[in-house]
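Sample intake sheet
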Amino acid sequence: MDTSNIKVIAFDADDTLWDCQTHFEAVEQQYCSLLSNFGDTSHISTSLFATEQANMAELGYGCKAFTLSLIENAVKVSQGRVDANTLLQIEMLGRSLHAIPSTPLDGVEETLRAIRDTRRFGMLVFTKGEILDQESKLRRSGLWDYFDRVMVVADKTRAKYRELCQTMGIDISQLLMVGNSFKSDIEPVLRLGGYAVHIPFEVTWAHEKTEEFDHDNLARITHFKQLMEILK
């Protein structure tokens, strides 16, 4: 992939710069345990995912949206029999996600530093979710100063990628998007004519699973450090 035309590199945050999904899955496991009187893990998880999907257009992504779905689904699977103390425990489980570690994944910080030192590219975080939550994780990670801009959006639609390019003053052909989700980080950019680097994470949220494809503007890597090989 020829990156000589690239002027801006946009980075996804969760599960690209730091681990996020494993914490959500751990909370879901505890949640299913709390509700074990009302069904097995498979039933409760399947119902939760359906509830999340139904709420997504109105609530979006992030800890708060997830917590509301946890509570709604608890009432649903229990047919209204879940007690107040259990609902409080569920609310606390959701709240705990606001304090998860945002330790950079292996190779992330040194690679960001190396890219910054080239002075060739604008660098920004482009992620979806809740602004306060995402900004908090970025600050806790210690990575904030590597980026020129942080953009948090409700969803990564093609329109939002066009808006990103307008904000940065570039054409889509001058954008390189780096992320773990083929559905959110890769496909929209490729369809618009931009460039993308896919770095799959060890776990993938069911909502982000999609059919993948090859493309001349796409590179696939298994470790964040390999990004420098592409940029050279």
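Comment: Strands lie at 8-11, 122-128, 149-153, 175-179, 195-198, 218-220. The chain is about 45% helix and 10% strand.
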